[in-house]
Structure formats: C-alpha cells, structure tokens
Specification:
Number of strands: 11
Shape: elongated
Largest sheet: 7 strands, antiparallel
Distance between the termini: 96 Å
Radius of gyration: 38 Å
Helix content: 55-70%
Strand content: 5-15%
Oligomer: single chain
C-alpha cells in the first residue's frame, strides 16, 4: 500500500519537469523563429536619412548664395526632393513598425498560452509536492526493499523540490516577458500613429511647395528682371516696417492688449503672446515687423474666423518664397482663405467691410485697419500703438500718406 502511494509521486517528479521544460523551450524556439522572419528595412531608412541630411545641407548652401531666380528655383526643387525623401522615409518607418507590432502581437499571444500551460504544470507540481510531503521519511524507508532504493527515493524528492523552485522562476520570467511585449506593442502603436500624422503633414507640405514654385514662375514669368523687382519690393516693405518701429522707440513687448467685441478682435503686434515670435523663421519679429500679419488676423475675426497673428505666421505658405518675411496677398488660416483686393475706403466701409491701409509714417511704413468713418475721418485698429483698439486714425496719421488700400475677401 505504501509503495502504491509513492509511485505516482515519483512519476510526477520525473514527468512534470520534462513537461515544463518543453513549454519553456517551445516559447524560446517560437520567439527565435518569429524574430528570424522579422521585416528589416533599416538599411533603406538609413539611406533615406542620409539623403535627407545631404539635401538639407545643400538647401542651406543655396540659400546662402546671392538671390536670383535660378537659385530660388534650385532651392525649391531641392526642397521638393527633400520632402519626397521625408515621405519615403516615414513610410518605411511605418512599415517597419507595423511589422514589429505584428511580431509583438504574436509573441504576446504565444506568451499568454505558454504562461497558462506553465501555470497548470506548476499547480500539478504543488499537488504532487503536497502528496510527497504527506509521506514521512520513515514511510519511504519502510516501503523500500533495501537501503539503495530508499536513498534513490529520497533523492527523487529532493530533485522535485529543487525543480519546483526552477519552475516558479520560469513562471515569474514568463510574466515579465509578457508584460515587456505588451509594453513594446503599446509604444510602437503610439509611434505609428504619430508617424501617420507626420506623413499627412509632409504630403501637405509637398503640395504647397509645388504650388509655391508654380506661383513664383507665374509671378516672374521666368524672368530674372521680374524676380529682382519682386524681391526689391519685398525688401523695401520689411525695411519700411523696421524704420517705422525704430523711429517709434522700438518694439517693446506689451501685455493684455487683446480686446474682442461685436466688431471682432483687436490684436497688438507687440503682445507678449506672440510679439517675440520670428516672422516666418526670419530675422524679423512680429513685434517689430508684424503689422500686416496682425492687421489681417483682426480682419479675419471681423468675418467670424477665429484667427490669431500666430496662426497666420505659423503657415509658411502665407509668405513669399523669394522673401520669407513678405506676406502674400492671399493667405490661409484655420481652414479659411483671406485675400486682399483693391478698394476705395468710403465705399468699402459703407458696405460694412473693414479696410487694410498701408501708410507712410515716421520715416517708415505701417499697416492699420480702418473700421468706420467717411470723408477722411476714420476710426482704426492700430496693431502697433498700445491699446490701439478703435482709436482715431487722424490723431496719428494723415490720409494723404496712405499708399495702399484693400478690403479683404474671405472664402
């Protein structure tokens, strides 16, 4: 009877270690097989990144050359090519990550099953150990035919206890591996989503760059003389803004300038919310040279488009490719397009349209928004003057010094 009790225990002590070892070995073999099948396009990504770096340097070099139509087109062509490479690199990264996600998902599934199998083995081991623990050494000794068999049985029990510890470690390690693979899956999934957003941005940039090239060729008609004329016009405008600001004592930063009412919003170019921002990545700032950007933002709010000067400034397509600080006549912000078109002041104001006017003042040039009035007496929003919301135009400037008049069409 005693012998029949002990024999199943010995069987479990031999069979279960082999079974658990089988599960652990199987997981390892499956992982290796999966990893060997992993998609590896790191070489392609590396080559694309190298090309991106080379093109970035080439564009910087071209931008440092004397401005001409040919050099500007060369910059545009290389910028388009750069964006194409960025798109290709991003697509390759997404392919790589999606492959990695598939592998991680497979590993998680394998580990879930293997963890369950090993846990079942461990439960059986605990049961076997309990049974073995209920048999005293004296019972083992009495059930043995001789001393050698007794010692062998005692050795089996010790091995079973040692293997229990190893099996518990294996279960714990399987849990850690499972948690790690789950974390890898989550992180890679987040990165894929971020790259997809970046890819959309690059595709939009590519279209804008192609459009900018078409616009430049249309504006210049392929003529170097026309290009130089446009370039001189842009430089003159920005230099005029700078002189106006300097002669007014500089572009000190202000606070709490924004006022919104039934007309729309008043913004000040020197407001601390955006005054220190670079004007489209140039040496100019919104505080010193952002009067036209700020004026356009105010007019857009009049037509119900929630727009800040920083929104307009954030879109490079709103500025001339040949002079990045020069605001184009047609701009976009927050899904709407605003276009300055020629007008007469009194006619536009009488129809309820604000008028953006350029003025020669204080040795420079400046833009303000006329919001009401007639016959030479007007109220304005001045983006430079502190608290310049709905103040008298005539108290600061002369109607005779107005050199540009436009209303704004929104669509």
């Amino acid at each position: 009877m005693r012998r029949s009790v002990f024999l199943p225990i010995v069987f479990f002590s031999l069979a279960l270690p082999l079974l658990s070892l089988f599960y652990i070995t199987r997981v390892s073999a499956e992982d290796q097989a999966t990893e060997s099948a992993e998609t590896d396009n790191t070489g392609t990504i590396k080559d694309l990144r190298k090309k991106i770096t080379e093109l970035t340097g080439k564009i910087t070099e071209l931008q440092g050359q004397e401005r001409s139509l040919s050099s500007q087109i060369a910059v545009m062509d290389n910028q388009i090519k750069l964006t194409v490479y960025k798109i290709a690199s991003t697509k390759e990264e997404i392919i790589q990550l999606e492959s990695d996600i598939g592998i991680a998902t497979n590993k998680v599934s394998q580990l879930e099953k293997s963890l369950g199998d090993i846990t079942k083995v461990l439960i059986r081991r605990i049961q076997a150990t309990y049974m073995a623990g209920s048999v005293s050494s004296l019972s083992v000794f009495l059930s043995a035919d001789d001393l050698n068999k007794y010692l062998a049985k005692e050795n089996y029990l010790k091995k079973m206890q040692a293997h229990d510890k190893q099996l518990m470690y294996s279960v714990q390690q399987a849990k850690v591996d499972y948690a790690n693979q789950k974390q890898i899956y989550v992180e890679k999934q987040k990165k894929v989503e971020a790259l997809k957003v970046q890819l959309e941005t690059y595709n939009a940039d590519l279209q804008k760059e192609k459009d900018n090239k078409k616009v430049l060729l249309a504006q210049t008609q392929g003529s170097e003389a026309n290009y130089q004329r446009l370039l001189a016009q842009a430089k003159a405008q920005l230099e005029g803004f700078t002189r106006f600001t300097q002669n007014q004592g500089g572009a000190s930063i202000l606070s709490n300038q924004t006022v919104c009412d039934d007309w729309g919003c008043y913004y000040n170019q020197r407001d601390s919310q955006w005054g220190n921002l670079s004007l489209n990545g140039t040496q100019y700032t919104l505080a010193s040279d952002g009067c036209l950007v700020t004026a356009m933002a105010m007019v857009m709010t009049h037509y119900g488009v929630k727009t800040l000067p920083s929104d307009i400034n954030a879109n490079p397509s709103n500025f001339a490719s040949y002079y990045p600080a020069y605001l184009l006549y047609k701009i976009s912000a927050n899904g709407k397009t605003a276009e300055r078109i020629g007008a007469t002041i009194d006619s536009a104001l009488s129809e309820g349209h604000p008028v953006v006017v350029g003025i020669n003042a204080y040795g420079g040039t400046h833009f303000v928004v006329l919001r009401s009035g007639s016959s030479g007496n007007y109220m304005m929003n001045d983006p430079f003057v502190e608290n310049g919301n709905n103040i008298s135009f005539n108290a600061h400037y002369s109607v005779g010094n107005i050199f540009e008049i436009q209303k704004v069409a929104i669509y």
